[in-house]
């Protein structure tokens, strides 16, 4: 009765136990599970993915820079996770809806975020950086794992509506320990909900290596709930794209939830407030630099003879443009007036809060009078 | 007018809300085939089917969390928590998500979720089946909190809660599920008193007794008993605990100058503390005596055989009334 | 990467997918996983298990009767689950510690409960029916799943202490949906804690069939967390005993947690407040009566020629004695005085509560004065 | 005496408690190698090893639930919740288990668990990182609640909390982690003031300002500013929120007759409501004006750029002081 389980011996072996289409050297290999999903991906499409990843890395670097310069309170870098985020998010249809955690800069980029959307929340101007309806993405979620249940509920709604949509949720390796993530799998399986779970196993939850959460492949968790899963090389953008298409097709076909564990690596700190030198084993970052997802796709395009200087230049221009606009939007943001703290607590009038708002307005007005007097 | 128990009135309210709006869906443990352990949802599965009356896995965080997702999708979920003491596993989803998503998104995402909680004690139940957790939710900005005390109110307020674009934690006094009252099933919601209003359920002149939920019956009995001794008590049913209708409350207090606030929940930082602090702020110079609290003790809910020594009853309310009417004993507690 | 999953098609098939030593007809069959653990079980030991089950059923019936007669507020019958509870609990050592839910009458019986222990809590006299230290059993737990984390923490303590003990936790099929139960598996696996999870899959969580929680064998859940598991026929007392010895041996050997799903059936209502006719499919109870765990062991002993009228009579006497004592203890219970509500809220003095106690004492004293006056 | 930051004082308190009693174990996210995101447990892994300084999986209910099991086994677990806003997933284990097991077993099982919570706002943080959830725990019978405001108290009270046989929810004002003060590291615990006592941190005669945590600094600044205008404020640091030391509080109120209670947490059914309701009960005839609350608004914690309009500051305290000192404006709120 007990499913076969493959323990992770070390990160090297860990990395070989994944579905993959591009080797770290950029060579295309066959994979019977994934190949069917990338038949239509030509060189132009690959270049598109490369552009996305490069632009994303630039956005991420700009976020870090803005934080260092005191323009943002915090930033959660996704450097190293570009293939996972771009690969999976580019496989989505516009009508799908995403429930992310806080590190999914690449996902909101792929969903059409405008420059200010990246920074509005981290700067402390708003609770949500973007308009959920505009991007088809729920607000970034900070409570670990909470969003996975939202995705499942949304997917239950899709099913009730008889719609051809999928809900997708992103979360980290650490999140898999939370009750909510496990309950999400229970509900998703029970209701056969069209939801895709994307676990970005970036090997760390702040200072804790993934082994604190699980000494077994996270992808092995889902089948116990009745959810098919796939463990994919998260630094192989093509494999991530294919895996996501597999999962989406499964969900869209009415077969219920699917689970993807993308094995990747956070190359930067947890957030700009973190100091990974306190916990990262020596050499680990260096080893992962060798597996850089952007370099891998570049090598592959080189091998195909499909990487052009022109495309690189265009990409660079685009990256610079986005970064520039992002910075300009950030610096130009105007903080809402004091009484805005009372806005939108409720959708309908609340007498208690109205009284407090009036009292506070009167209090503030007192200062103006003082100044005037 | 139809005579219904409070439980049946709630069921009728749910049925009506579901007929009126097909985005209303129910989620909870055992609410389908069984009709809920209190039979509040009895018959709804048959009428609306399993996609609108959803028996959920046994996980309260999952129930509320998926309700959030349904709300994102435009549904109006009504969640049943099986008993008051089982709401805590959902606390994070309620406090950090349900209560905050509207604010987080500045109104772009609405959370018209109703969380129904069979509530409070006095029914001889096992541990965790008699809790009064309302203060936790009153203290949580972004939620509305309602507590009903009779069938007519139950029918009206439940429909209002479901129709509200804000999340509502809706407390149903288990002890009164079988109490009967007249309900006008056809009264248009538009004509009803707003959900946030308190009600003077018995006018009086000597002192104001403020309460809610099942304790309203006790307060009314106390008022009867006091009347026999020539004391006229005004009884106010708060009905809405967030917001509290301080206009109604303060108007009464300014007339009587004497206040007792009663509830089953424990005392420290409870709803009575809130009401008294606000009354004192708003009506200080009208107060003839210190407002007093009659509450459960600051103890975990005791075993059933001892619950009568925890729950405020007629005598404890009357004792407090005596004290607010007699300045001599006011600060006896300070000794 | 995806473990093999066996869907449950129906309860008949469900029942064949279990480890077993005794067929429903009472025939002993070979089972390579379980056989090694019952080498020492002779006919006398089997008769002991039979006696336990019969006495337990009697205790359970007495509980129901006392409730019907208004002596208890509630009772949660375990009829049908005798083999699971007796089989697993009899495999424990005295030094082991159990974290049960509310239906484990058989477990506290096997751990040496005194007659009053069965009813003290259900009568509403005390929060806990028994002394945890005396039985090596935590108080019955009503919050679904909460106790599983307690067991894991206790097991972490065992490990820190270097002790040769095991923590055991019992919970239902419904409980597997709770975040806590899943978090318990995460912690147990991470710390390699000597804890045994015993899921009594009695097919129902109040009115919800197990399929609402999981359409896949619950035993398949644990391996995804890195915990070996076994799905055992919960109406086969010998198999339950053997499975528990397997799990305990695994934990005691320092190999960490183990998981048992015992497939059984609740023959009575959820509690005395429940009406199963509202949800139980016709014929289901009858089908399970054919699989009665007591009858099965009787048949087996018959087959061995080891069931004596004398033993049956002794057992009956014992059952009647326990039931009589239980009833007497129950009826003789004296409710604590009013001020006892304030006892033991805290271990150390709490000025706020002392004031409330004094106020309430004064209030009560007022009545005495009135009466006197 | 040693000069330490509040953060270092807490670390020293933990180290001392772990040296004194080897049943003290720490659990939390990132508390080992990293020393916690605030570095409070820095160095403890090296000294005590991974069986006593336990980096846990990312699951707060799991952390508190396993701490309960460790307590069953005779350990004294000290749990770190990484930020105030992450305590809610553990709410059920705290409220239904930690708080109730001693009562449930009539003292046969003790829960000497300390739950440390880096706490409150004013640090420009992201959502869920600036919460003030103390009222939830104050309202929960069976828990003790402590909030510290300076390094000496932090060192003392943390050791007392760990030594207590009761569960203690221990609030650490993040905003003050880097504030320095003198700490006597060798002071025997036996000589220390009991954990439940409040402290008059500044004597005064005209009005009493009651607060706790980081707001004590603000209250003291307000007292300085008031002194410049000839108003003498008494400032009381509650230090213990459950129980509240009403002897100290009431003694002050009877002298000044005027009270302001200040905290960051939102207002409805908050700690200030409790304190004001109790003061009013106990000292009614000494009150010269309605006690006033200066609190966070009843809103979810706002985005960082707006937090200064949520957090009570010097001016808001002084404004309330003005109002309690001037009877004319007392009931302005009733308009
Ligand atoms: C409920 C909750 N507990 C704790 C935290 C603090 N915290 C923020 S991120 C993080 C680690 C998350 O790790 P993982 O899930 O692997 O995601 P990653 O950061 O690696 O993308 C922690 C512990 C939180 N945000 N929410
Ligand atoms: C947290 C929580 N939610 C809900 C309940 C109400 N409840 C009591 S028993 C039960 C069903 C439990 O089913 P299962 O886990 O299969 O155990 P069984 O009763 O079958 O032994 C429910 C929903 C509870 N006790 N605790
Ligand atoms: Mg991670
Ligand atoms: Mg069951």
Characterise this structure.
The complex is a heterotetramer, with two copies of chain A (373 residues) and two copies of chain B (335 residues). Helices cover 45% and strands 8% of the residues of chain A. Chain A has helices at residues 11-16, 43-68, 82-89, 105-110, 132-135, 146-161, 179-190, 210-213, 221-224, 237-255, 284-289, 293-304, 309-332, 351-372, and strands at 97-99, 167-172, 195-201, 204-205, 208-209, 229-233, 258-263. In chain A, helix 2 (43-68) runs antiparallel to helix 12 (293-304) and helix 6 runs parallel beside helix 7. Chain A starts with 10 loop residues before the first helix and ends with a helix. Chain B contains eleven helices and 14 strands. In chain B, the strands form three sheets. In chain B, strands 3-2-4-5-7-6-12 form a seven-stranded mixed beta sheet, with helices on both faces. The model of chain B is unreliable at 327-335 (pLDDT under 50). Chain B is of the alpha/beta class. Chain B folds into two domains: 2-191, 3-Layer(aba) Sandwich (Rossmann fold), CATH 3.40.50.970; 199-324, 3-Layer(aba) Sandwich (Rossmann fold), CATH 3.40.50.920. In chain B, helix 1 (6-20) runs parallel beside helix 7 (151-163) and helix 9 crosses helix 10 (271-283). Residues 172-174, 202, 204-205 of chain C line the site of one magnesium ion.
